[in-house]
Amino acid sequence: MCSVLDATAATESDRRDADHDTSVGADTRPAAGVVTGRAESRGRGTWLDGKVALERARALLPGLVLSAAAAAVAVVAAPLLGGISPLLIAILLGAVVANLGTLPTVFEPGVTVASRRLLRIGVALLGLQLLLPNVLALGWGTLAVVAAVVGLGIAGSMALGKVLGIGWTQRLLIACSFSICGAAAAAAVDGVVNARKRELVTTIALVVVFGTVMIPALPAAANALGLDSTQAGMWAGAAIHEVAQVVAAGGALDAGSSAAAAGGGALAIAVTVKLARVALLAPVVAWIGVASRRRTAAPMQTRRPPLVPLFLVGFLACVALRATGVLGPAWLDAARLTQTALLTAAMFALGTGVRLSVLRGVGWRPFALAAASTIVVAATALAGVLLVG
């Protein structure tokens, strides 16, 4: 502010001197450096800004192209591998690339942007999948089960993580990702707590491992317990971590079922229940944002996590947009493909951070917490399904 005022004062002084100089032959043309110099300075500033932006774009391009190419491979390979989620394939590709050799530094800036920015845009677009009337149609009993799964899952995981001696941010990432919606929840929470990259990557890896185990395990357990199609679908939607993993498990439950052909099988119920859990992402992250700001408040603190991150506002805007009904099936399909592409590219980028040496250095505690969180969430969901269904 002072520099602006000083510059203004100097300009005014020059102008006054020129106005009051009435001597014969006085040069009333603008002095060099007053007008012409300012114009040249603005020109140089614009040129330099453009040059910096171009250099930054060039630095990001290799990593973004690599992430996009890996996402394309994962999307194409998914149907050929029995319908495995492209997100899972992408993170495995990233892990393979990372562990076969060191990723050249030229790719690092773009890969870092993909792991953060693209992931958060994908989370925002997830809101377009959420149709609130369908969620409310589940009934208050099922919605209560969903709320219990999220609430008890987070509380139980946080308590167990504290007993295991795990740091606050790591156990919070695990608790929310296992209780709400996997990697998307981890990214959302990371946006308000500023966790370390290793903690986020560890959480994503644990979601992949334990969520993948749940795909065959839950249908087998549902069959052993004698659950009908509706109960099994509710359990899958309430217990499994990722939306894609829920789809895979729901498809397995519906295999050979006549109810599936009528659209009333386990898969449809599982996805709707899962989206009800996704609907709780916004209020949970907003609450965590408030709690995080209180934890990090200090006299010397200059940077605190945002109360409501921009991508969460985007998520809510997408939910509202879907509720208006203005988007037709073609637009929703395009948005779904875009979301899948963004999340798949982001998963590859995150996968490049899943190094076996790093995971070995993490120790057994996060794995123990992930296993315990899976059990808590699955047990809470099953108890609720048996009570309601």
Task: Describe the structure in your own words.
- The model is unreliable at 1-36, 258-264 and 298-302 (pLDDT under 50).
- By secondary structure, the chain is mostly helical.
- The protein is 79% helix and 0% strand.
- Helix 9 (197-225) runs parallel beside helix 11 (243-254).
- The chain has helices spanning 2-20, 36-80, 86-100, 108-125, 132-136, 140-163, 168-181, 183-193, 197-225, 229-239, 243-254, 258-261, 266-279, 281-296, 310-324, 329-351, 356-362, 365-388.
- 42% of the residues are buried.
Give the radius of gyration.
Answer: 27 Å
Compute the number of strand runs: 0
Main β-sheet description: none
What's the helical proportion of residues? over 70%
Content-based structural category: mainly alpha
The global form is: globular
Q: Average pLDDT, to the nearest integer?
A: 78
Percentage of residues in DSSP E strands: under 5%
- Number of helices, counting only DSSP H or I runs of 4 residues or more: 18
Distance between the termini: 65 Å
| Secondary-structure element series | HHHHHHHHHHHHHHHHHH
